[in-house]
Every structure is written in C-alpha cells, then in structure tokens.
Amino acid sequence: AVGRAKLELSGLIFASWLGRIGFAQGLPSSDLSSQSWSYADQTAWSSIDGSHCRSSESPQSPIDIPRVLAYADVYNETLDKIPEGLRLGPATWVVSETAVNVKIEKGPTTWTVKTLPPYGERIDFEDELYNLVSITFKSPSEHTIDGIRSDFEVQLNHQSETVYADGHRRLSAAIRFNAAKEVESNFWLNSIWRVAMSHNHSAASFFQIGNPYTELVPLDRSFVAYYGSTTEPPCYPANWLVHVQPGLMSYEELVMFRASLNNNQPSRLATLTENQSKSDGYGYGFNSREIQDTGSRTPKMYRMSNVPDHEGASSVGIKVKHSRSSWGEPLLWLLAIAALLCLIFICYAFLCKLRERYIGDGDEESEDYLDPRHGARMQKGVMMQHLVPQFRPPGPPYIGDGDEESEDYLD
After folding, report:
1. By C-alpha distance, which of 269, 296, 305 is closest to 284?
2. DSSP category for residue 148
C-alpha cells in the first residue's frame, strides 16, 4: 500500500510537471482531429463524415478473443532469405534493419510514433507486403482475452506497398502489456518515453528506435488473425494480428503515459468503467474503443511450436479444439496421391486380366480356348471371329450332298 501511494504521488507530480511545460497540447494524432470525436461518446463515430465506423458497413475492431478457439495452425518459426525475415505461417517480419528512424507526435488521444521513409520495416502477410508507417499506444488494451483487458497495448500500423483503386490496404499488429512491480522499465518502450518526456510540443522530435519486430514482438510470436478495422475514426478496414503472449512494462511507464493524456483539456478520453486495468485506481480516463461484435467472423490462431526454452509457454493459455501442423497438409496430399496410384494400378491389373481372358495376347501359339456356348475349342486370337454372327445369303437350307456319312450341320 505504501509503494502504491508513492507511485500515485509520483504520477500526480509528473502530471503537474507535464502541465507546466505545456506538453499536453502537442500535435494532432488523426486526420479527423478537426472533427470533434471522443472516446466518451463512441456511438457518435458512425455519424462522422467519411467514417466507416458502422458495423453494418464493415466488420469492426477491437474484438474479444475467446480462451478456447475452434481451430489453430501450428508452425515452426523459420528464417527467410528473401526478404530477410522471420516467418510464422502466413506472416514474415522483415528484420534486416536494426534501427528505425521515427518522429513522435503528441495528440489529445494518444502518442503517435511515425516512421520515416524509406520504409525498411515490413510485414509480408498472405503474399501482400505492408510497410510500418506508425505506432500508437492504448491503455488499457483494446483487445481482450476472454473478456480480460491488459494494462497497455502497442499497435504497429502498416499500409500495403501496392496502392489499389480505393487506396492502401491496412494491417495492424497488437502487442499487449501488463505492468509489473518487479520491472524497472521496458527497454524498447523506454527509448520512446525518454524522448516523449523531454519533447518540445512546438515541433516533432526525430530520433531512432530499435526494430520493433525483434525488440518488441514477443519471442513466442503466436498470434490470432482476423479481419476488422482501425480502432479510431475513420475506422478503415484492416487485417489484425493480435499476439497471444503479453509483454511486461513498469508501473511508472504506464502512469507517465496515462497522466500525460489526462492533462489534455477538454478531455477526449472515456471515463472509468468497472472492468478496467490495474492503473485505473489513479482515476485516469482511457483511450480504448469498446469491444465490437465478432459476428460471423472466426479468429484463427497461428501457434509457434519452436518457442525458445527460456521464453516458456504463453501465459495466456488459449486452447484450441483442432490443431493442424505445418507438415500435416502436405502429408495428407501425399497419402491421397499414393491412394490414387494404388487405385490406378488395381484397375490396370483388372483390365489386363480381362484382355487375357476375352481378347488374347495375339500369340499364334497360345493355348486353345474352350468356348462354352459352342462346345468347341478355338484359339484365343480368333475367338471373336466365332462369336460374331456370320452372314449367309438367303436360300434353301443346307441339306448336304446325300452322303450318309457326311457331317451333320448344326443350324
């Protein structure tokens, strides 16, 4: 309790300091910042000009991921040569660059870290290449596991390299974090927090951060994929990769972020509800969108099977009813091809037997064949000639030459 009181006091002191330096004003975080929208009245988002925030128009995000999923694919994480990256199932994280050039902008609803071209941080997902264009932060987490929120969520926002008739396609990856007492700081987050705390609101700050694909994404890259939307107006359609294993951050980092947002007046944050994260004891609002209806969508999990030993199993414990390994599908195809070849061989052998029995193999010295309908023996090669009726001209029936010893004729 004493430690919590000290942490609350330090958070309030830090928030007051932010207010004195004018950090709260910052820069806009959204193209729709000129229009009045807030997390407190999310039902009004659908009436904003140019927005796609109606569930009847397109599937929305975030969603609740059930603890038991119907289906999962299991893969080994592999290293791709072209492009150089780590691959798990349909996703490849390009890791050729170790540092990312960025600038930070502070808006009334979140901090936005924008990457600078040329873009070297990319995700190849389902044969579509996406460039990392921005990083945003939400507290508490927007995506939930079995209805439970984490303290924090980092969203890596991507746009497709290809420009389509309706613009870029979008993909976002979500990494959830929990605040822990034993954690002094998160190395990757701290590289951004240091700049944010000293940020001059009159201009964006330019600096470098580590590649989030290697320093932020958990070593257990297992993720749940689904189709939804971005989580603030204009709610563009987007693919989502929600990583299963949460990361860790310090309470101080969490308080710093939430205190800075709460100093914006008038506030555009949502008020507290009963089901919020641990940091809500400080009375801060939050910048998380409400959970959207999953509808007929079926989130699909891609589970990593070769997790490093020191990382351990995912602490979330999501279960699946049916799992399929990466080699399972090719094995099924091989079995199907083998069964087809066996069937073809059986049919060929059967036809060969029929040919030997009814047609023959064309050998003049072959054994005679007994025709049961004629009571006569005949060679296999000429059997069909006797089976086909012979043409006889009309006339009196054949009587013979009167020789009593002549052979009988069977009509």
Report:
1. 269
2. B
Structure tokens at 10: 């330090």
Please tell me the pTM assigned to this model.
Answer: 0.69
In tens, the pLDDT along 282-325 reads 678 899 999 999 999 999 999 988 887 655 444 455 655 555 55
Distance CA 116, CA 203 (A): 16
Report the distance separating Cα 353 and Cα 348, nearest Å.
9
Contact (Cβ atoms closer than 8 angstroms) between residue 235 and residue 60 = yes
What are 345-377's pLDDT values in tens digits? 999 888 888 887 776 555 544 445 555 555 444
- Tell me which amino acid residue 369 is: Y
Strand partners, 153: 138, 176
* Per-residue exposure over 53-66, b if at least 16 CB sit within 10 Å of its own CB, e if not: beeeeebbbbbbbb
What is the token pair recorded at 271? 């008020």
Residue type at 275 in one-letter notation: N
CB 314 within 8 A of CB 302: no
Helices (H), 230-286: 251-262
Question: Going by C-beta distance under 8 Å and a sequence separation of 6 or more, which residues neighbour residue 307?
Answer: 219, 220, 222, 313, 314
| 73, 301 contact by CB (below 8 A) | yes
Distance of CA 202 to the CA centre of its chain: 39
Residue that wins the pLDDT comparison between 238 and 381 = 238
pLDDT at 342: 92
The strand pairing partners of 111, in sequence order, are 106
Rounded CA separation 346/355 (Å): 14
Q: Which of 171, 176, 160, 189 lies closest to 288, judged by CA?
A: 176
Nearest to residue 279, comparing CAs of 260, 307, 306?
Answer: 260
Q: Three-state SS for 349? A: helix
- DSSP bridge partners of 171: 158, 239
Q: What is the C-alpha to C-alpha distance for residues 110 and 287, in angstroms, rounded to an integer?
A: 7
What are 155's strand-pairing partners? 136, 174
